[in-house]
Amino acid sequence: LPRQFPDSASVGGLPVRSLMCAPLSSQDGKALGAIQIDTRSRSAKFNQDDLRLLLGVANQASIALSNARMHRHLLALQARERDLE
Predict the structure, then answer these.
(1) Rounded CA gap, 30 and 15, in Å?
(2) Taking a C-beta distance cutoff of 8 angstroms, is the pair 38, 19 a contact?
(3) How confident is the model at residue 10 (pLDDT cuts 50, 70, 90)?
C-alpha cells in the first residue's frame, strides 16, 4: 500500500483515540465512498449523538454527490444533442 499511496498513513499508526466512519452511497445502494473523522483528544470520545450527526451529514453528502453525477451526465447528453443538431 505505501507504494500505491506514498503520502498516506495507516490509521493504525496514528495516535487516534476515537474514530467514526459513515458510508456514502447512491440511492440505488452503490458505494460512493466514506466519511471518517477521528480525534486524538484523550478527553473527547465520540458518542451515539455524534454518530447520528455524522450519519446525517453522510446522507446529505451522498445526495449532493448523486446530484452532481446526474448533472454531469445531463450536461454530457445536452452536448451530444447539440453536436447532432
Answers:
(1) 32
(2) yes
(3) low
- The rounded distance, in Å, linking the Cα atoms of 49 and 57 is 12
3 φ, ψ to 5°? -70, -35
Compute φ and ψ for 78, nearest 5 degrees.
-65, -40
Residue 53: how many other CB atoms lie within 10 Å: 14
Can you give the pTM of this predicted structure? 0.70
| Distance of alpha carbon 14 from alpha carbon 8, whole angstroms | 11
List, for residues 12-60, the tens digit of each pLDDT value: 666 668 889 999 998 888 999 999 888 877 788 899 999 999 999 999 9
Phi–psi pair at 32, nearest 5 degrees: -110, -25
The H or E element containing residue 46 is none
